[in-house]
Amino acid sequence: MRRHRDRQPTLCHPPDFVYLRAVKIISWNVNGLRAVLKKNFLEFIDAEKPEILCLQETKCTPEDVEQLWPASYTTYWNSAQKKGYSGTVIFTKIRPLEVSTGIGVTEHDQEGRVLTLEFAGYFLVNVYTPNSQRELTRLPYRQRWDKDFLRHLKKLEKKKPVIFCGDLNVAHTELDLANPRTNMKNHGFTPEERAGFSALVAAGFVDTFREFEKAGGHYTWWSPMADARARNVGWRLDYFLMSAKLRPQLQRAFISAGVAGSDHCPVGIEIN
After folding, report:
1. Above 60 in pLDDT, residue 2?
2. Within a domain: residue 95?
3. 9: how many CB neighbours lie within 10 A of its CB?
């Protein structure tokens, strides 16, 4: 796991800005930052104005994109070694105390999947969980990932509470996808992957969206086939989870299903 102290110029908000008013944090699997920049990305930022924006599946390096976003954001990147693949980035108006990439396990840290920012009151972890693949060829690896990632979260939590977000590549319960019965053994809804998510909950992390919404029909990813998005035949694969200690600060959790530009839509929280 690579760590470095932030050497960026001082931003417009001090580290304890998080305690002064509600902070909006948004997560979005953009399925290619270069692609979404040609669509509605800048308009999305202008409309939502999040203090922090976590992106997954960026598929690029900072040198690959024209950085047209507002100057109020500083960006931190963890790009995959394989060009055009995976990758995470965080846009933030709040200056982090420290930034680190990966989880300290060589097997997992080549694909740019984890980016951690430390703030005064919590760690924020942006994660793009590996897909177990259509034929489940990567399911054994995915199970190792789930255990190692949880170990990383609990290690951070020994120091201060944790918020983590991103594309977790699993629908946790039958409420989290439109057709659970026909997908029982498909990637993203196998017993093994669902157990990995359940282990996060058992370890004390709160599924923030389910704190406010108990019903089904709320999804964050739709297949590009068969007009699935228009028919809302989807999966909830994108999440915000947090240490139970932070639950009193959680004001809102939401899914922005109407935002196009990717096969995933943004999800977010607001915290004090």
Report:
1. no
2. yes
3. 7
Q: What is the residue range of 173's domain?
A: 17-271
In a domain, 2, yes or no: no
Query: Given 146, 167, 207, 238, which residue is catalytic?
Result: 167
167 is catalytic: yes
pLDDT tens-place string over residues 52-98 = 999 999 999 999 999 999 999 999 999 999 999 999 999 999 999 99
Does residue 128 carry a catalytic annotation?
A: yes
Q: How far is CA 15 from the centre of its chain?
A: 22
Domain count across the chain: 1
With beta carbons less than 8 A apart as the criterion, state whether 131 and 221 touch. Answer: no
Asked if the structure places residue 88 within a domain, the reply is yes
What distance separates the 2 farthest-apart alpha carbons in the chain? Answer: 52
Select which of 76, 122, 128, 219 is catalytic. Answer: 128
pLDDT digits (tens, 9 = 90+) for 166-193: 999 999 999 999 999 999 999 999 999 9
Q: In CATH, what number is assigned to the domain containing residue 27?
A: 3.60.10.10
